[in-house]
Design a protein that fits this description.
With about 90 residues, the protein is mainly beta. The chain has a single domain (about 10-90), classed as Beta Barrel (Thrombin, subunit H), CATH 2.40.10. Helix content is about 5%, strand content about 45%. The strands form 2 sheets. The protein has a 6-stranded antiparallel barrel with strand order 1-2-5-8-7-6. The protein has a two-stranded antiparallel sheet with strand order 3-4. The termini are far apart. InterPro entries: Phage_Head-Tail_Connect_sf (IPR053734), Phage_tail_attach_FII (IPR008018).
Length: about 90
């Protein structure tokens, strides 16, 4: 039996308003400072992420624009954890 998660209260408490490809969504935005993957020249690379319910995604979000406040990001990676939650790895968008 699958467990259906309800992220309503989590998003209400910790989420921020955003738009994904022009559609309104609520996300948990994280712009971590510190540990991350090792990028070119051995430097630590940290990229911002946005978490949201997988059910709100229409199709593959990779390459789409996620606007959080006045900052546009391009979705570089999408990972669904199997519980109904997805994490989008973001890159700066011009």
């Amino acid at each position: 039996m699958a467990i259906a998660e309800d992220f309503t209260y989590y998003l209400a408490d910790f989420g921020v308003a955003a738009t994904l490809d022009g559609a309104p969504v609520r996300v948990i935005h994280e712009a971590p400072v510190g540990a991350g993957s090792v990028g070119p020249f051995g430097m630590t690379e940290v990229r911002p992420t946005a978490g949201l319910p997988t059910a709100v995604l229409v199709g593959d979000p990779v390459g789409k624009v996620l606007q959080i406040g006045s900052t546009p990001y391009r979705v570089a990676e999408h990972s669904a954890d199997g519980t109904g939650w997805s994490t989008l790895v973001l890159e700066a968008s011009a």
